[in-house]
Amino acid sequence: MDLSWAVVVNFVTLYGVKVIASLLIFFIGKKIASLLTTVVVKGMRKSKIDETITSFFSNVIYFGLLVVIILAALSNLGINTTSFLAVLGTAGLAIGLALQGTLSNVGAGILLVFFRPFKIGHSVQIAGENGHS
């Protein structure tokens, strides 16, 4: 019984500090990501950027930072994150190529919202179709 208790104490002292440090990295990093996102949103609202674009970019920034924070916490635990980064890069490339047309439309929509080439009540003709905005 003495030997098993020694193994448990050894395990806790070796990995307990790393687990606690990784949890601190995660929770403090999450709070910092939230604060940075709030600062960016306030800046965008002060610049009078459309709420749709503000919401989109705040989500992209927050989840991008969250991925970095999770990778930092995992790296602190001793997990090799190089393979995760390779998988994320490959997945990003595959998704980007698969959604090329859709992402093009999203970009066009963001430009339309940002530059506002027409206003509510204007008549528009796009691809031979007439409509009112």
Write the layout of secondary structure elements.
Elements (H helix, E strand, L loop, with lengths): L1 H45 L4 H26 L5 H17 L1 H16 L7 E4 L2 E4 L1
Antiparallel strand pairs: 1-2
Helix pairs in contact: 1-2
3D architecture notes:
The protein is mainly alpha-helical and 133 residues long. Helices cover 78% and strands 6% of the residues. The chain has four helices and two strands, in the order H-H-H-H-E-E. It has a two-stranded antiparallel ribbon. The protein is elongated, with a radius of gyration of 24 Å. The model has no long low-confidence stretch (mean pLDDT 86).
Computed structural class = mainly alpha
SSE run: HHHHEE
The coarse silhouette is: elongated
Work out the helix count.
Answer: 4
Would you count the extended β strands for me?
2
Strand order of the largest sheet: 1-2
Low-pLDDT windows of residues = none
Radius of gyration: 24 Å
Mind describing the biggest β-sheet?
2 strands, antiparallel
The helix fraction, in percent, is: over 70%
Terminal CA distance? 78 Å
Mean pLDDT: 86
What proportion strand?
5-15%
Can you give me a brief rundown of this structure?
It is built from 4 helices and 2 strands. It is mainly alpha-helical and 133 residues long.
